[in-house]
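help with this:

***
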Amino acid sequence: MSRLVDYFVIVGFDHEKERGGLSNGVILQRFPEINWEDTPFHDGIEWFCQPQGWALSTERSEPRFYVSVLTDVDANRHYCACLCFNETVAITPTKPADEDEESLDGSRPVANITHHSIMYAPKCLVIVSRQDYIDTFRNCLGIIYTVWVENLGVPLETLVGNLLGCVLVPPAGGPQVRFSIGAGDRQALQPPAAPPMPVTHTAVHMLLRLLGIHNSVTLWCAVMSEHKVLLLSLAAARLSAACRALAALMFPFRYAHVYIPLLPAGLAEVLATPTPFLIGVHSSLKEEVSELLDVIVADLDVGSLHIPAGVNIPQPEGKLLSSLQEALALVLQPELKSADSAFAPPAPSSSPPHMLDKEIRAVFMRTLAKLLQGYRHCLTIIRIHPAPVLTFHKAGFLGARGLSQCPFAVRLLESMFFNGLVAERGPPWRPTDIWDELVQNLPEQQRLESLNPELELQHLQELAMQLHLNENPNPQAYSQRVLRPPEGASARIHQPPLPHLDTARVHDVIEEVTARNANNPKLSAIRLPAPRIIPPGASPTGAVEHTQLLLTNSARRLEVLRSCIAAIFECRYADARKSFPGVLRALRAPSARSALVRDLAARLPTNKHLLQHHQFELVVRLLNCALQSASALDEHSIAAAILPLATAYCRKLCTGVIQYAFMCIQEHQVWTSQQFWEAAFYQDVQRDIKALYIPSPAHHHRIPSPREDDEYISLLKAQEPSALEIAAEQMRLWPTLPQEKQRELIASEESTLYSQAIHYANRMVYLLLPLEGAGRRADVRGDDADRASNSITNSVAESDSADAESGFEEADPGEAGNNVIKMVSRFVDKVCTEGGVTAEHVRCLHQMIPGVVHMHLETLDAVARESRRLPPVQKPRIAWPALVSGEAGAGTALRALLLADGRGSALSQLLPAEGALFLTNYRLLFKGVPLDPYACEATVVRSFPLSALTREKGVRAAHAHLEHTLHDGLQLRAATFQLIKVALDEEVSSEQAEAFRKAVARLRHPPHPLLHFALAPRAPPPADLAQPKHHTLKGFAKKTLLKTARRAGLKPKPSKRQKYVLPSADARSLTSPPLMSSLSADTLSLEELELSGACGPGSGVSEGIDTHSRSLERVRERVYARDWARVGLAAPPFRLAHANALYTLCRSYPAVVAVPESISDESLRRATRCYRQSRVPLLSWRHPRTGALLARSAASHHKGVMGMLKSSSHQTPGPAQSGTETTSSLEQERYLATLVALTPASRGELEDSSLSLDSLLLCCEEQQHNHTPLLSKAAGTLGVLGRGSGGKGGTSAARHFGRWGSLKDRRQPSHLELYVPRQRLSTADLDSVSGDGGGSGNTNRRAALYVLSEKGASVALAGVEPVPVEYPDARHTKHAFKKLLRAAAPSAPQSPDEPGFFRLVEESGWLWQLRQLFQLSGAVVDLLDVQGSSVLLSLEDGWDVTAQISSLAQICLDPYYRTLEGFRIMVEKEWLALGHKFQQRSNLAATPQQGFTPTFLMFLDAVHQLQKQFPLAFEFNDYYLRFVAYHSVSCRFRTFLFDSEAQRAELGLAPADDRRVDASRLGVETGGSGGVAGAGGEGEDGRTSLGLFEYIERLHQRSPLFYNLLYTPDLDNPVLRPVSAVSSLEIWEYYVSEEMAHGVPYEPDLWLDERTQPTQRRLVVAGYDSISRCMPDAFTGLLERLRQLELELGHLPQKWRVRWDQLELPNTLELQRNASMCSGVVRRATAAAHRRSTLEVLARARMAAAPAPPAPAHRWAPAPAAAPARCDHCADLLWGPLETGVRCVDCGAACHERCADALALPCTRYKAPPPADRDRDRAVSSGVATLQSSSQQYYEQFSSNVAENRTHEGHLYKRGALLKGWKQRWFVLDSIKHQLRYYDAMEDSHCKGFIDLAEVLTVSQAAPAPGPPKKCDERSFFDLRTSRRTYNFCASDANAAQEWTEKLQACLQ
């Protein structure tokens, strides 16, 4: 029995400290005045009597009642029930009323209260109690107040004394107490039935009603996860009830943190505490608590819940949370069950509030019971006597329930609440309550509910009834009588003050009542609930197997595991290794790891088991794998079970030195977890404690049984009582045991804990002390040798040295040893304190730990020494792979492991592969065997040429295989779409790896071109090649004198040396080095070569010229010259000119060029000044039917500053030209006019030419019913996705293909038209492209010559029409190739959230560039073939896209180029003779260039696309193209090594056709691969003279390797018109194919030599084998069969081509190729599509040249008030205090009202709507003009420059990235698109580029940069840093810079 009331206190207003109506409370009286011994009085109670502060009031208020809760140091709660009322006081002001004084509460200043004569002061009657009977306190205080107010005659001292001494409360479960305090009242008090169950009445229901289900559940989760929770309300009762409800919903947990339901305003600083709390404050403090950043605030009056941004509230896992919310919804809204019923039953009656309260509590109780289901099985008891001590195995519970990834469960188990739950409800012998029954019966209840869901609500109602009976156990109603004051009693004016109570009288009453109660026998007869054994309930379940396993751990997989372990212990190592991959994969599941540990423990005969070396390695590997799959928490107790195994399994290194397994498994995170060691220690202690009180199974009398011993032991263990059951029995017997037995049991348990602490201290030292951190030297090679025997990281040995304990104090354990000592000491302190180990034993443990560490350090020395002597693992011998002819090793091979990359092939069993990385003078290759024992018979080869290496970097091995300790790795990526990712073996030192990388870099970029593999066997380059131009004074003088004499008109005397005599019949041509040196410009002028008859026959000059003529005739026999002769460009009116014989005209052109006959060599020389790189237009091809010409050149110099500089650089000073001579510009015009004249279309000779721009425009308009403008179709066809962006280097909508394929900006011409006077062109008037004033005749005229040029180039000449086009330049090609390479050969496996392969290919833009090439080449085809007009390709420098378009057009037009011979001639003509920068594009120079730019590869890919669309039109197959693509960058052949013919001639490399050997005259094949590689050479130097096409020709003679056996040319339709849509393009097999059996499939020498005999059955795997060779097609198979039959008959086999030509097709009508209607329709549709594409190219060109339409007018509107600015017209101040302005609503221009009409700035963003009466179906009357206007309207509707998207705009100076110059641009900040766009000028409608704000990291003020704009402030600079680069900006002044910075930062937030 305990007192109901501890203290009765009267608190009043302190008038002495009153200042301005505010003061403090003061305790007037308290009873009793002396503290109780068991309950001291709490000071500061007056703070809680008035939570809002003590203040006088001018108005009388009603009495108020509220309860505050105080918590003492022992966490006991004291309830303060306060009844507050007002007393009338007379106030005499002692200070002026207006005096400004601070209130006592300085944090909350309150205005002074004006003093009246009568004021009301607060006074409180307070009851302080440890009991939670709020209603009883309210009644008692109300009775005392009523007696005083009504003056009933009962002494207040009697009431107070009876209240303090009369009322005694029984404990929980006691009977009802009826009492009276002496005022004629009758009251009843009912204790709850169960002690720990909270009493809530209707508080929980009120909380759910105020906040709702979602907010209430969230708030509950916050409280359960120990967050700071603050409640706000205007009513103190709500705050108290809400706090009570939240604490009750936690049951069975108790809230153990700061709990203040009603916080006084003066203690508001408590909210800043760092600890969790649950506090309620008045809503008047809402503003003060709003700044708390980590407090969750719930407003009960509003029903809102505020969670700060940085607070994360964990919630239960999804199923548990959803069931909680659904159950709450059904309880609070019972109509939900029948809401959707067709025949709705009557609405269910709602439960009363007090029952709803209990049902809600039942829902939360069930949720916590579900979460903690089976928690008693994870309780670990470590002491039973004298008091039980229990811990909880948290990791085991999380693992068994599968809650390791549930943050709510993890947070709950780590909370103080849970520790209190374990301490309170953990003991197995105690009274039970509702919670224990619920946890025990819930699993069965859930099983029944799964069958019948209706039982859930029934169970909730049953729980609610039990909770209700707990609060109201007595069903008998008792009529209470409680006095209450009448209404209006508090408003009486003449109410006397509360009298002062007589302390002595109150004390007497208390003494009297206490003595009377002491003699009451009924109060001492109360029985407490009896304790009993707590049932453990069901075991925890819910964990699932590893989700990443494809198969579950069936009995078969566990049987494989047991078989592997049996094979290890039976020394069948081969069988064990074969099953290892499956075992390691199975060990990812917890059940398999548990089976492994059990099996290894069963095979442990004693505490120490010596193994052989192989056994030891395999066992350690299994243990490592089991620990790798487990987490650091060890949820499944795998690491704890491995501890005894790791200290038992060992191997003997030598005599006295033993290596244990635990030192080989140290590199796991679990060993560093203190929580793991504690849990493992407690489990072992519980096992030993259990063994103290239960006999061993060996002591049982065993009955003979045929069963095995393990089955019998397991049966006995199942029958054994659990540790908790044993503890419960011991706790029951404890009071009956004698004291000697009790002391003995206590000592036994303490010694058990002490011995286990010693054992675990040793274990921790063994597993935590590494070999490297032992304070000694660490021998790297010794460690590596140890790792070679399967990851032996650390070792330990047993040593029996006599002085093992000597010298510990002197030795320094090192940093690692000290760390281990600290960690073990912390562990010992923790477990010994919890287990109650004596202080003496703890001190001994601390003294022992350093000795154990030092002893272990000493034994490690012996183990480290002996481990270095272990023989290394036998590794396979490194054997060099097969090499091609001339290939040799360039360094030592590095043993490595080939790792799997991101290519998703079906070769997972082949990788990783163990082998070596080889470096030769030609290739980088890896050769090895797979580690998979089932695939170890295969050979894995990956290789690529050194010259194709694009990137090499060192990586860390991501695949750390258990058998190999890999410390470094290399990743090598090649332009041939190969990737070698290797992890170097441990035997490879860092110096060897670095030397290997340096050798790769040296061979990749040799110092001279002649040192490439194709030319390496030649002699070293002559010394003069590396010397300067004039390395001697004599040489310099000679050159100077010769130049001076030549300029003076003197002819040098010809030399008498035989300069022009060819050395032999097989001599080199004119381009050989002797002839080149003799025909230099310094010794013989070009005019002398032209004097054929001026000299006599006997002169030396005549002899030289005759020899030179023979050389020129040999030059004319080259393949490209013969091809020009074939197409008619060598006969009049054309000629093959020798103006470039000495390569002085153009270095990149061949010695002989095809030009019009009327163009002289001097004219060519002058015209070179107008073109880049002096590449004048040359004729490349002539149409056999239309006679149209295809010419190519570089782009002409633009007429700007850079153009003048470039053109002037080509002019050399010389004698003054005569008046008849023309300038370079006129020569250019004459040349183009000659091409026009040579075109038959210009003379009207082609009658069937029907292609004209306007006619097709009309046709297209007639076919379009919706009258879509032509350029809208162009946008859809060409994929116009956006414009170029300077800010990001790409486009906004199509980042993947840069700036081509789109229409560029139509700006006003900004270049100065210099140098070319327009009045010189007197031939004819220019055609009008806009259709204005020219009539219909001009618009229908066709141009005879179309010049495909760059934007900005202009050609004003009759019959010539410039066509500015967009094309894929080299820079974008390089970027697209880089992305394509990463997509085709990724370095890492693709994650599920990353884009797939096809998406990456699309984003690379490679296919879009191919599409653009097809469009441009298709336009060239149509212009040449359909219209008959000539085409001049004048793009870039004339050797990249020009060669691509020209080659593709010729292949489409001429069937000859689709043959093997024709394709070779076309490549040699367009790419080799006419020049292409192979060295730069393939990055073959001596110094590394910017990157690999595969221009030639893109051309080959385009030919591949043609071949796919026209499979019968090409004589060569796809393998031929892939072969050429591979060897174009391999440097095995000299064909693609140099940029031009001049470079080859300077190095003495004559063209291949000058010495070509016709191998086709051989009628039979001789066999052998040596003839393939070296045939046709010149002695030992023959390989260097071999070209790629010669090699292909020799292979072609032997086998149909490159021949398309389906080749059937269509002579009726020779022109190919491919489909250029991206959807029709395919990804080339060259990018994704791989053959790992022999490496790349483009080295026939290798796989021809390794031809194997066919077996009866062979498995062919794609990606490993070559399917085309293993499974040849029918034709190839039959030819090979014929060859074998001839060999069997002893005949010399005929060549395959001879056999193929002997075949005769049957002359039947079925095999004739007839055109069908479908093929005709397709052909016409393709031709129409091509014409449309050509039309779009021409239309875009004419649009770009047409003038822009007039800009629309402004729409002015009054401008709102803003910051001062300047008028755009007069530049005066705008928007000042006196000036007003207007602003255009469309473009944002601002000016004065008076300046609006005069503003000349056009509106750039306004799009005027079309008039209503506009006829949309009018006919096309103005040709291109109509096209331009309609397309302009079409594109302008997508303009991004709308006014509403402009957040801020203005001029800024931007610093360039390349030249670092400042340039002013107009910037627009767009917050809608999240972009910062910039324009050339404010009136520009198309942006130059943009900066994506998503990539912006920071915007900050910057220091002034060098070279700033003039008149700039130092504070006007700011930087914008993105993830790509940093942009430097400069504003006009500091204010503008600050404004820009603020705007940008606002957009980033």
Summary: The two ends are 64 Å apart (CA to CA).
